[in-house]
Amino acid sequence: MIYLELFLGFLRVGCFAFGGAYGAIPLIREVVLSYGWLDDEALAAMIAVSESTPGPIMVNLATYVGSARGGFLGAVLATLAVVLPSFLVILGVMAALKGLLKNRCFQAVLRGVKPCITGVILATGCYMTAKGCLAPLAAPGPDLRALVLTALLAGALALWKPFFHKKLSPVGLILLAACLGIVLYGV
């Protein structure tokens, strides 16, 4: 039964997750929590791990949850389910690409979906920041180290380009966050 639940749960994520992995996090969260596969704290930790490991976050999360709940077969089924809809859509789009890209209605849909995806990603980032800084693991108040870390990373993003005349790369930001985490939280 767990194999069917994993497949159907992550198939739903794969079917309805738009805007990439960050846009899919709310849907993944809903599916994982509704089935009781992970609690909110474990899911947040896995999202952090999935962001720093190679590969798409959605696939990493599906593989991890599938493995934790159903072993190797669970990992394979969850991963297959989360990528299957995209794979099938890409096959269909490739077949009809020339006609779709010239279609005014299709272009209007794409232009309309972009702001929605930006909003979902922004809301997810704000939720995760607030959850990590303001509602830490059963602590009575906000996590000051997390607030300092968030402020330092936001400052680095804002000040990097004016000082170095180029954008801070995602890899540089991850390395900076790792170093600051080691300094603030210890090894």
How would you describe this structure to a colleague?
The protein is mainly α and 187 residues long. Helix content is 84%, strand content 0%. The protein is built from 7 helices and no strands. Helix 1 (2-16) runs antiparallel to helix 2 (20-35) and helix 2 (20-35) crosses helix 5 (104-134). The longest helix has 46 residues, at 57-102.
What coarse outline follows from CA principal-axis ratios? globular
Element-by-element helix/strand order: HHHHHHH
Distance between the amino and carboxyl termini:
41 Å
Q: How does the helix and strand content classify structurally?
A: mainly alpha
Counting structural domains, the number is: 2
Q: Could you tell me the number of beta strands?
A: 0
Helix content: over 70%
Mean pLDDT, all residues: 86
Radius of gyration: 19 Å
Report the portion of residues in β strands.
under 5%
Q: Which residue ranges are poorly predicted, with pLDDT under 50 across at least 5 consecutive positions? A: none
Largest sheet: none
Number of helices: 7
